[in-house]
Design the sequence.
């Protein structure tokens, strides 16, 4: 086997990767799916919100006649834990170009009663059916080459408790937005990084739902410690991503009254803006 | 009566204005409200999406223990018409700081069956209970003084069919984003205007839901004619607006595959960023 073929063989394929296995759903009844939320996508003890959104997104892709999330809005209700969960979907409307659905993720309390974790509304379509016109004034983020950016594996020691998701992701952060890691936050609400899955699986519309919520919070660069739980996250998927690593740029402009917004852009290797997202998050001072 | 008192007397109050009367709901059952959608908020024949969002927002303010929409996401399913409608709400979760609810607006087909127009998910809180810290890098839009901007009443002739909502709003558009009106669009996806209600009612969190979707589409300045129906609109209300006219700035950066985003910011007379919104809209070429 040539060296190139060997490298190729070690890359996980879409449909056969950690991300796919950990978002796989077991149909229980029409529109109802069981899943065991993986402990592999936790930050400290919380299950990552982007991973959870991808789980809900996959359920809706199955339940709706269209496969690609064009716009998906999630309201986060209670904190999810690794372990059993059920996703219940509801088809709101089906159309020729777009279909709209709703989904909720539930887990179980000590008495086995369902507790709702997240509720989602989304409109799905077929990205491959869109015309290929692009008129954009958006520009890819100015970010150094991947080998000049830094990930958790490049530091002297892993951040305690934060390693589970780090093993599943390839995140290389622009040094210009990494001051917080050495105690010198820039004071700017910016975070930029190269992003991929650690096993080399290429991006698809579902993994974009993870990509928009996987970087360290911009609040770190604003000098804030503590947790920044998401209240609501809306993602627009604008194009099917090309193979190769993504660039993710996150910006916070307005921190006020204990809340902030995080605006994310995701760019693919063809310099195409493939996703835009915004979330409203609470600032819990640590 | 002094001149100032007379001017004051002619200004409608919050709670007693066209906007309040036209978004008023009649309780039918717990969480269920009837309304006659006013023909006063139509553009050509379509009921304005921001007015409809305000109707749904008012229903949730009644149904939830918190009164102010912090983040509200609406998926537009079918076109609303002036006339009878029903809003059905569902309390998803109530918390100390935030409550989450869902609401749908229905109208009736020829056989009297309910047809869903819009579905909404929202998290509500109490804006007055937030700390008054503000750290922002956002800047108010560069827009000329109100008397140097132009509204529908300033043109030589009203745009045919578009006048109903124009009578209810005070919109004065920055001449720099008004090229489309004289056949010379700038090619930039920008629209900026002063915004208020024609009867002088001051803004509140519910009227902000109208303000983000009341300007001409940025597509006009991109040289596109025809209609730009909203697929999904999410609004974050970040502060209770001060009295006086608002400034609304809308930006589109990415028109691709027949869809575009419209990002709106709303600023109050105290130079406070009071709302941020983003919508995904379809471009239907006229």
Sequence:
């Amino acid at each position: 086997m040539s060296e190139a073929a060997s490298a190729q063989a070690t890359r996980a394929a879409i449909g056969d990767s950690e991300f796919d296995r950990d978002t796989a759903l077991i149909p229980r009844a029409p529109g109802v799916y069981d899943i065991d939320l993986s402990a592999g996508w936790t930050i400290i003890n919380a299950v990552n919100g982007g991973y959870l959104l991808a789980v809900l997104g996959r359920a809706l892709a199955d339940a709706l006649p269209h496969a690609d999330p064009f716009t998906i809005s999630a309201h986060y209700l209670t904190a999810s834990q690794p372990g059993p969960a059920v996703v219940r979907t509801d088809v709101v409307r089906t159309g020729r170009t777009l279909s709209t659905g709703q989904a909720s993720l539930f887990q179980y309390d000590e008495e086995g009663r369902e507790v709702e974790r997240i509720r989602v509304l989304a409109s799905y379509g077929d990205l491959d059916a869109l015309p290929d016109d692009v008129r954009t004034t958006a520009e890819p983020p100015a970010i150094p080459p991947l080998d000049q950016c830094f990930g958790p594996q490049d530091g002297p020691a892993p951040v305690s408790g934060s390693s589970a998701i780090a093993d599943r992701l390839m995140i290389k952060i622009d040094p210009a937005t990494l001051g917080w890691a050495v105690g010198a936050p820039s004071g700017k609400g910016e975070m930029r990084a190269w992003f991929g899955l650690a096993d080399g699986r290429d991006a698809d519309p579902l993994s974009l739902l993870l990509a928009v919520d996987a970087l360290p919070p911009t609040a770190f660069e604003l000098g804030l410690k503590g947790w920044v739980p998401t209240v609501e996250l809306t993602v627009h998927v604008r194009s099917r991503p090309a193979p190769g690593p993504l660039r993710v740029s996150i910006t916070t402009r307005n921190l006020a009254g204990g809340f902030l917004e995080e605006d994310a852009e995701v760019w693919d290797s063809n310099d195409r803006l493939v996703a835009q997202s915004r979330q409203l998050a609470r600032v819990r001072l640590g």
Remarks:
- Chain B has two domains: 3-127, 146-282.
- The helical segments of chain B are 3-9, 18-22, 49-63, 163-166, 205-211, 218-221.
- The longest helix of chain B spans residues 49-63.
